[in-house]
């Protein structure tokens, strides 16, 4: 059974999700995650190679991960001593306090299904707010002159609202990539691109690229330390 999430109201026994219903519960979302990891076993394998694999959907991802390792693209590039071939550094491990102070425990806790759904709900809310802001801008441009709203004023109002929404879009999208890879509903796969900072890759390609980046580069001063990093081209001029 999934645990309750503090930001969501508690309740009694959850109703069983049926094909006729439109809302998922946490337990049904867990079943969906297991099926998704089976479908995208490359991602499950890549997640298991990360040092913090225990903090993702460990059981579902571990069960779906390829037993043969999936080839070099899905593994860390290390020598026989499990050290980087490039720097000879050992694979970093999470520095988890022991004993764990109660006030820090939430930082190292595995994300619950309720929290994953909450993240997607917030991301969806931001997307809807961005769309409504575009409509508001159109309305101000269309009818603003009669109300004394100039082009400059309309644009200032639009920018004042839209800029922080777009910033939060990227921040929460990054959190979703790491903590809640698969949305509760398929249509949510299509709201990740229009108002974000990328438009040319399918959602699962973005997921694979970003997780490969973090598996290859633990330290931003040593890009590609544990294998090929697809984000290397972003830092070429910086390191030249």
**Largest sheet geometry:** none
Radius of gyration over all CA atoms, rounded: 22 Å
| Structure classification | mainly alpha
Distance between the termini: 52 Å
- Along the chain, the helix and strand elements come as HHHHHHH
Poorly predicted segments: 1-22
Shape assignment: globular
What is the tally of beta strands? 0
Helix content: 40-55%
Number of helices, counting only DSSP H or I runs of 4 residues or more: 7
Quote the average pLDDT. 77
Strand content: under 5%
Features:
globular, mainly alpha, single chain, 240 residues
What's this, in brief?
This protein has 240 residues and is mostly helical. The protein has helices at 26-39, 41-48, 58-64, 113-143, 151-179, 203-216, 232-239. It contains 7 helices and no strands.
């Amino acid at each position: 059974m999934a645990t309750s999430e503090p930001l969501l109201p508690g309740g009694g026994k959850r109703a069983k999700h049926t094909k006729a219903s439109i809302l998922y519960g946490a337990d049904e979302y867990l079943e969906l995650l297991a099926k998704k990891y089976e479908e995208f076993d490359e991602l499950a394998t890549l997640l298991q190679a990360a040092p913090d694999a225990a903090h993702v959907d460990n059981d579902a991802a571990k069960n779906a991960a390829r037993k043969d390792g999936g080839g070099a693209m899905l593994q860390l590039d290390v020598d026989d001593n499990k050290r980087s071939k490039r720097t000879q550094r050992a694979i970093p491990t999470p520095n988890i306090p022991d004993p764990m102070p109660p006030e820090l425990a939430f930082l190292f806790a595995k994300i619950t299904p309720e929290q994953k759904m909450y993240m997607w709900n917030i991301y969806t809310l931001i997307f809807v707010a961005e769309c409504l802001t575009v409509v508001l801008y159109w309305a101000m441009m269309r009818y603003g002159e009669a109300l004394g709203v100039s082009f400059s004023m309309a644009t200032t109002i639009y920018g004042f609202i839209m800029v922080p929404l777009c910033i939060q879009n990227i921040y929460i999208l990054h959190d979703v990539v790491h903590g809640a890879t698969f949305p509760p509903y398929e249509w949510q796969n299509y709201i990740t691109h229009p108002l974000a900072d990328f438009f040319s890759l399918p959602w699962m390609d973005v997921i694979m690229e970003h997780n490969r980046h973090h598996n290859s580069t633990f330290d931003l001063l040593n890009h590609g330390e544990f294998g090929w990093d697809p984000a290397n081209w972003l830092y070429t001029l910086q390191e030249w």
